[in-house]
Amino acid sequence: MAHSKPIQVGDRVAYSVIFLQSTGQHTGETPFARGTVTALKTIGAGATTIAEVDWGSPSVPAKVNVANLVTVEGLAFGR
Known about the structure:
Layout: E1 12-15, H1 17-22, E2 35-43, E3 48-54, E4 63-65, E5 69-71
Antiparallel strand pairs: 1-2, 1-5, 2-3, 3-4
């Protein structure tokens, strides 16, 4: 999913619906998690960016590929 603007440190984020559907996550904490990006790190040849996210919960992974995130402002029902 292409972002209208790249995710930046300080952005409020959630997992994208496309990612959640592709991994079969419809219930539990992950689909409803909202967090703040605290750091960004590019790995490999610069093709992948990992966001460190403070979800406020230890059960949601802190490191996430930015391709699997959307900004909270970008969320809409059914998307």
